[in-house]
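Hmm, how's this folded?
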Amino acid sequence: MKYTPTKSFKLFFPIACIGLLSTAVNAQTIFFNNGATVFASTGAVVQVNGGLQNDGAAAILENNGTITVANSGTPGSVFLTNGSVMQGNGLYFVEQDWSNSATFNAGTSTVTLDGDLQQFITTTNGTVTTFNNLTLTGTGAGNDRKKTLQAVNANVGTTGVLAINDRELETLTNTIFVLNPAITAVTNSTTVGSEGFVSSSVGGSMSRATNTTAVYRFPTGSSVGTTRYRPVQLTPATAAANIFNARLGNNNATVDGFSTAALDTTMCTVLSLFYHQINRTAGTDNAGIDVFYSQASDNGLWDALAQFNTPTAAIWNNMGAVANTSAVPFNDVLKVNWSDFSNSPYILARVKPAMPVLACNDVCANSQGNTFTATGTGTTYTWTAPSGATIASGQGTNAIDVDWGSTSGPLTVTTSTAAGCASNPASCSVTANVTPVASFDTVSSGFTYNFSDLSTGTITSWAWDFGDGNSSSVPNASHTFSGNGVQTVCLTVSNNGCADSVCRTVTIDATDFINIPNVFTPDGDGVNDLFYIDNAGLKEYRIDIYNRWGVKVFQSETAGEKWDGRSTSGELLSDGTYYYILKAVSVTTKDYSTKGYIQLIRKN
């Protein structure tokens, strides 16, 4: 049944009811204006128990009171068609759909979509409704909680407020534009589990105009799959005019072409549950981007933000230093003064801790208890040793003990945060040095012992301990003991720290002596070619030899050194008598110092 005004009329009485209730269960009463001018004055209350249709170029409905379009078995909708005009500063309560294919001049009005079934804001010809205040209420659950933009965008005007309350404003691939730049232009319920939010499919979004440096909240969410309310906040850098858009992608970003496996090298993972698309469609300002998440529901702590495709294409790029705040019910990750809005996908991420510092020393083959230590910022350390080596203790900590085998190889460690984000691995090459086998032999002449190294294997250092406080580091050592007795002589040989030792008892039982020949024949026949003072047990020794004119031709402070009959410059000396002065004192303090002559005879 339709109620059709046939001429213009005005309602000036405080309460008016237009329309008749049908007694048929499935019937619906329509207030149908096909050419009249209808005026509801301030204070008037118009109750339409069914639908309202304003139709035709001459149809003008001006509402400065309250018009309620309620159900009559079937919920009532508002239809603006065929060039009609609806205007005024009043209140509209609509239980079902808002279909505007004509002209709606919002003034300072408020349209409240208060139905308990899913409601649609739609059109038949692409007309975009600009509301002043748009309020969403109702008690429906699931899909019946939604107020949906169907094949059309919608605007909230430059002075209006979008009041979402606990409903879902579903834009699908469309956009709800909030043209009022006041930070209070969008309100919603934030009661946990009953939050009101704007949901959008790929291509749709919530858009807000800005003109201050205050925080603008975008109450983004979704009921696709797991219902999530995950808002973002944007803080423009200046008070210039800008427009920003945002949506929640309530799925793994890979589904929408933004692979969560493609990361730059600074990150270990990104959130697989959801992501956001944020862009700047007007203006040039930087803005702080603040993304909220539930630590309990969203897989723990997240300490970074990443943007897809910028600066490196086809991967998620770490956006750098951020501020992290923990709170209930939502933590947030804030990137201050972000400048690059060239690509819209943003996601929560975890940054790898710094690669630990690891310094390795070489080890001895087949040795136990080799300690290695790493320094890093993580809480857990994971070590890997090469084949043949066993981590005996410390796995999980920054210090381990390793029982090493016979093979050289790399030792590797990563450090992980409490959230399980692992660093890049630190590695060093460990050489397993084979330990040599120590051995030596000795030959004595009086108090002087000559020690010969007979050790096997690769040797990089020698250490002799003669047992009397003296030592040597040469491979083959000579040592003169101070007197008779028993000494324990030890040789330690090392291969880069891998050492073996052997000790032998040496019994010194010698007499000090000196025997000075008076002639030698340096003629190269192999017999008596060298002048040599046979001796044993000397601790001081010096000999000087002069020719007949007093010129020194030879000098030595080494008791075992021999003279070959040449001058200090290497010239062959002639036959003749030479004079020597000997200074010699034994280890038993006996003085063998003397002077004498040497006869040099060349047979050839």
Notes: The chain is about 0% helix and 45% strand. The radius of gyration is 51 Å.
